[in-house]
Amino acid sequence: MAEIQQKGGDSGKGGKKRAKKMSTKIDMTPMVDLAFLLLTFFMLTTTFAKPNVMQLTMPVKDKKPNPDEQTKIKASQAVTIILAPDNKVFYYFGLNEPTDKSVPVPEIKVTDFSANGIRKVLLDRQKQQPEPIILIEPYVFDGKQAKYKNMVDILDEMNITNQKKYALVDISKKDVDLIKTQKLL
Amino acid sequence: MPKVKPHRTSPSLDMTPMVDLAFLLVTFFMLTTQFRPDEAVVVDPPSSTSDLRAPESDILTLTIDSKKRVFFGYDKAPVKEAAIRAVGAKYGVTFTPSQIKQFSLMPNFGVPITQLGSYLDKDTEQRKALNPSLPGVPYDSLNNQMIDWIMEARKANAALFKKPTFLAIRGDGDADVQTVQTVIKELQEKDINRFNLVTSLEMKPVAGAAQ
């Protein structure tokens, strides 16, 4: 045993160290691979860090509304869009005045959020009527209501169709009644 | 005309400049990246074609999830510290310095002020387990703590950094439209009329082309 130890110690201490002649050039490929991997990772993570936003400017709330100063929307300009549950869109042209018998009762049409849906309706309307005013009413009644996604979608359609005048308002009782009488919900 | 002789070059080329550039870029991106902090609620914002970007800082985020809950978040710690003191004083709740410190580190929260103290005393893992059952910041007209948080944070930001606050509403696509409208209406009461709805980017449709 001692012999083995001595032998081992001998070879460790007594052996001459030979400087191996190595090439000064090393293979950098794995390092480059790693560098580029990290580069790709950080590039992709930084690009998507900041969120996109959609601006929504609401009118300044008038504390004491004066009915004389309020401008009435002309029936020819008015378009009402109702965001219904289940991603449906109801719309009608003109005004809905159930108490005024001289105003014809509008007919609600149903469409959706596809490119051939509400976007086509808006673009066609803009051709007929140069300045339509759009009222967006999210349907909230009886526990059934539209999703926030629908609201963003319709505001987005306003941007896409370059619609200038639109307002986001609460659904009126008369519109809920109109939907009921036409048996849409 | 003399024929162009193809040069015989060595197939191994000097990669050093490329490696230098790669590492330079790695360092740059590593230093500029900010990792997304652990938020109290995960929402999936709807997509839109709007390509406006949110600013770098001073963003107040109201996160609205599909369970009608509202979460309040601000991106600057000193503003949050000032806000928790001010709102706490208004509701007669005092916080210890360690609770305030803990609060300033959280990206957002959704508990009523009376429960905030015990929520802050818990550690990160316990809070994470608690998050799905949180009630959210109260925002109904009788107990409107959300508006107090917003007003105090805006005031603090104006006082500390002399900058306006950018108000972002980060709603889940499946959130009720009524909840979002209620929040917007309450902010309008305080003469805040400019909102920014956080959305994810979708491609603009090509004019005239049907999808």
UniProtKB/TrEMBL annotation, chain A:
Q: GO CC annotations?
A: plasma membrane
| Principal cellular location given in the protein's record | membrane
Signal peptide boundaries: none
Write down the membrane topology.
Answer: Single-pass membrane protein; Single-pass type II membrane protein
Which GO terms label this protein's molecular function in UniProt?
transmembrane transporter activity
Q: What keywords appear on the UniProt entry? A: Cell membrane, Membrane, Protein transport, Transmembrane, Transmembrane helix, Transport
Location of region: Disordered: 1-22
What is the protein's name according to its record?
Biopolymer transporter ExbD
TrEMBL record, chain B:
Determine the domain of life of the protein's source: Bacteria
Keywords from the UniProt entry: Cell membrane, Membrane, Protein transport, Transmembrane, Transmembrane helix, Transport
Presence of the UniProt keyword Transport in the record: yes
Major localization listed first in the record, in broad terms? membrane
Looking at the UniProt record for this protein, which Gene Ontology cellular component terms does it annotate, in alphabetical order? plasma membrane
Annotated localization: Cell membrane
Which GO-annotated molecular functions does the record name? transmembrane transporter activity
Gene Ontology BP terms: protein transport
Topology relative to the membrane, per the entry?
Single-pass membrane protein; Single-pass type II membrane protein
Which protein family is named in the record?
Answer: Belongs to the ExbD/TolR family.
Protein name per the record? Biopolymer transporter ExbD
Annotated source species: Hymenobacter ginkgonis
